[in-house]
Design brief:
Number of strands: 18
CATH superfamily of the largest domain: QueA-like
Shape: globular
Strand order of the largest sheet: 2-1-18-17-14-3-12-13-16-15
CATH topology of the largest domain: QueA-like
Order of helices and strands: EEEEEEHEEEEHHEHEEHEHEHEEHHE
Distance between the termini: 23 Å
């Protein structure tokens, strides 16, 4: 099929500001849960989610870890400059390697109060393991969409850039949380299973999981697997154009272990439930990467483009198991234990899901690509879910309540 004729104004709703959760609940798994299973809606508490997931299902979570990406500098004039690190540019674009750098690095950044910092070097000092390290930032060039390249240097070669961010950076709360980050955010704007550093926004559907919840899932013979998608700031960007065809999707890095792909292949066609829209996009991207490898064995397929999964031919698509097999053959030939790729996949109504049969997710912003993803899965009943949740005082967005959607 060609690019779907989607009008963003059809995917909006009235979200009062007082319904946007500004703080997390004291207990992660005490959040409310709305379940849309077939044509029925049920309400419960998240800690009981195992009661609604079929035994023998596979749950897949995104184990990315949010970095403390916001750096605050003070100019000699007293002006405060915020530098928000988005992605590494030099000497490497690989996220894990970027944090291990012990020398100068260049990152794509947003700059708050940019008019006050057009030239010159900003600096701040921090105590790391008993040593005072001075971090300097120099604005280099303007990039696309109001971003800039910024070079960071520091005077201690034993210190990595990742350590500097951990010590000096602040939690990158989303723009609809209208307060400064606090100590509570350092722990709560992170899932309990976060491992791989690299996100500047959290996979918030995972906020509700606790060890007790995970144990309740295991007791029901529900399998747990992990993937990595490093979430970019584009996840908060509303669709500002009149036609979805004009919207430019952001690119994000995904990493999936070969064992996970093998377990996924062997599990299908039994239920696969994604924890969060980032995991949905990762799993569905695996399918399309596999299709490319199946059609062009040994090719250099490193990513999924935005509209690639919307073919304009009637050519039958291969089964998911075949797509995953193609990926596994390629990885074996190249001696890879993990697949590293990029995705710009956008999922909107008209998309045919190939891997997942359910998802755990939070509520999403009006006119967002994430809300369109929900609509692609639920159809028009997304409106019923959101209307019910607004009428019944559910808490919305990152620190809000949760949803379980099952086919």
């Amino acid at each position: 099929m060609p690019v779907p004729d989607i009008h963003p104004e059809d995917y909006t709703y009235d979200l009062p500001s007082d319904r946007i959760a500004q703080y997390p609940l004291p207990e992660r798994d005490a959040s409310r849960l709305i379940c849309s299973i077939g044509s029925t809606l049920k309400e419960d508490i998240f800690r009981n989610i195992a009661n609604y997931i079929p035994a023998g299902s596979m749950l897949v979570m995104n184990n990315t870890r949010v970095i403390r990406a916001r750096l605050i500098f003070q100019k000699a004039s007293g002006a405060s400059i915020e530098v928000f690190c988005l992605e590494s540019l030099e000497p490497t674009k690989d996220v894990s390697q970027a944090f291990q750098q012990q020398g100068p690095v260049v990152w794509k950044c947003l700059i708050g109060n940019a008019k006050r910092w057009k030239s010159g070097i900003l600096e701040q000092s921090v105590n790391i393991s008993g040593k005072i390290v001075t971090l300097q930032a120099e604005r280099k060039s303007e990039l696309e969409r109001g971003t800039f390249s910024v070079m960071f240097t520091w005077n201690n070669a034993a210190t990595t850039f990742g350590e500097l961010l951990e010590e000096t950076g602040r939690t990158p709360l989303p723009p609809y949380i209208l307060r400064q980050d606090e100590q509570v955010d350092f722990l709560r704007y992170q899932t309990i299973y976060a491992q791989q550093k690299g996100s500047v926004a959290a996979p918030t559907a995972g906020f509700h999981f606790t060890e007790a919840v995970i144990n309740s899932l295991k007791a029901k013979t529900i399998l747990l697997e992990q993937v990595t998608l490093h979430v970019g700031l584009g996840t908060f960007r509303p669709v500002s154009v009149n036609s979805i065809e004009q919207h430019v999707m952001h690119q994000e890095q995904i990493i999936v272990e070969a064992d996970t792909i093998r377990h996924l292949r062997d599990h299908l066609p039994k239920p696969v439930i994604a924890i969060g829209t980032t995991t949905v996009r990762t799993l569905e991207s695996l399918y399309w990467l596999g299709v490319k490898e199946y059609k062009d064995p040994g090719g250099n397929q490193t990513g999924v483009d935005q509209w690639e999964p919307y073919p304009d031919t009637d050519e039958p698509m291969i089964p998911p198991e075949e797509a995953l097999n193609a990926l596994l053959r390629k990885m074996k030939q190249r001696g890879l234990s993990a697949l590293s790729a990029t995705t710009k996949l956008i999922i909107v109504p008209g998309y045919q899901f190939r891997i997942i049969s359910g998802m755990v997710t939070n509520f999403h912003q009006p006119r967002s690509t994430l809300l369109m993803l929900i609509a692609a899965f639920l159809g028009e009943s997304w409106k019923e879910v959101y209307h019910y949740s607004l009428e019944n005082n559910f808490r919305f967005l990152s620190y809000g309540d949760s949803c379980l959607f099952l086919r």
